[in-house]
Amino acid sequence: MAMFMLAALAGCGRGDCLECNVPKMPTPLTIFAASSLKPAFDKLGEVARERQAAAPTFNYAGTQTLVSQLVQGAPGDVFASADTAHMTQLQTAGLISGQPTLFAHNKLEIAVAKGNPKGIHTLADLARPDLVVVLADQSVPAGKYAQQALAKAGVTVRPASYEQQVTGVLSKVALGEADAGIVYVSDIVTSGHVDGIAIPEAQNVIADYPIAVLKQSHAPGPAEDFISLILSAEGQAILRAAGFEGA
Amino acid sequence: MRRARIPTAIGVLAGLGLLLFLLPLAGLIVRAPWNQALVELTDPTTTTALGLSIFCSLTATAIALVLGIPLAMILARTRGTLRNVLRALTTLPMVLPPVVGGVALLLAFGRRGLVGSLLYQALGIQIPFTTAAAVMAETFVAMPFLVIAVEAGLRSLDHRYEEAARSLGAGYWRVLTRVTLPLLRPAIFSGAVLCWARALGEFGATITFAGNFPGRTQTVPIAVYLALETKPEAAITLSLILLVVSAAILVGMRGRWLGAL
Fold first, then answer.
1. Which numeric CATH code is attached to A108-198?
2. What are phi and psi of B154, to 5 degrees?
3. Domain ranges within chain A, ordered by starting residue
4. What is the CATH number of domain B53-212?
5. CB-based contact, B228 to chain A, within 8 Å
6. B-contacting residues in A 94-113 (Cβ below 8 Å)
7. Does residue B126 belong to the interface with chain A, where contact is any CB pair within 8 Å?
8. How many interface pairs between A and B have CB atoms less than 8 angstroms apart?
9. pLDDT, tens digit (0-9, with 9 covering 90-100), for A190-243
10. CATH class of A2-105+208-246
11. What is the mean pLDDT of residues A36-51?
């Protein structure tokens, strides 16, 4: 019975509701998404709701946390990761249905206080002894990318702290406790409380964001539709407005 | 005198309550990679974090004793609205999500904080990201446990002993150190143990206010959290080590300070 109802719901969600006499009911979807995606995905969720295509709820957390939740059996329909390594990990664990699609890219930027009072212009400046610098921990994708960028630039930084998530870096710069930190461009665009100093292409690291339907999903059709919405021109525009680069 | 037999229902409920504690512990023990435990124990990351955790939690408890006992004495003396207000303020850190507590500490003692900005401008002192910050965060979160326990002890104290000492000519400080505090020993001890245990497990306020840097602010709970993301086996081992160390300290202190209690 439950299976039948779910199948019916899934059918309605796809829009082929001709046989249904009940009004179109949006399919509930649970989306596991990297925390950096929150501003963009909240908007995409609104769009999906307006069109009554689906009723997504989002579980935002660090990608690594999402992976441990899913491996421990958390229920979900879609997984959007902040790096390919974690997506591959779930694929190896047999939790992904089909092939993941890259839907966005993110770059690194140096976050500084509004107006850049300390005159920070390059990654090399982060080695200055008069600065308090915070980075994300190496266990977090953003921290791993930051180390790669610093290595490319040949800079050794003595950070005051290795934060357990990017938002920790961002809030410490925004509160004025740290002078600089390395975060994603999208974080700076949506934060509004810090300024961003661009890192040249040669030193920068591109973060790839893959998305996929989870094998356990009860509504793979609407889940695929949600991914199509993200890949559509409208979805990509929302992502670009949030500071991401398109797929 | 025979005690009344405990009804089955109470026994069943107590058993369920105990299971809630035992099952997660069993989970840790069953899943622990025992062959790696020794390697993990000698790992410098582990020993540094463990040393820092013990240092910070004991320092926080010591500060809580020095500041918390007088606070409890004032609380026990006040009545009415003032008492309710003071009580609410004291227990605030218990109900506040620790991360929020960490942000509040930043807003007070950070470089741009209410007090922190004065410290920074006048003396160039910067509290966040230091071991002192980790100790402050732990004290902030853990001290209420001590204050509440000591206040309860003071309220249930038989004040005739103090009055007797006073009538025999003892001054305030003499009564306090010879009569009141010794009578309060069980309350102070249990409060200090609760306070210390809370400080040892502190995570949210510490990582928010003090950040995470090995040897400076990376306590065991933070090391466990970060290890959980990259190498879960190490995280489980580290959790067990913290558990064993705290149990050992508790048992040791109990025997030494409390005797039969």
1. 3.40.190.10
2. -65, -40
3. 2-105+208-246, 108-198
4. 1.10.3720.10
5. yes
6. none
7. yes
8. 62
9. 888 999 999 999 999 999 999 999 999 999 999 999 999 999 999 999 999 999
10. alpha beta
11. 92
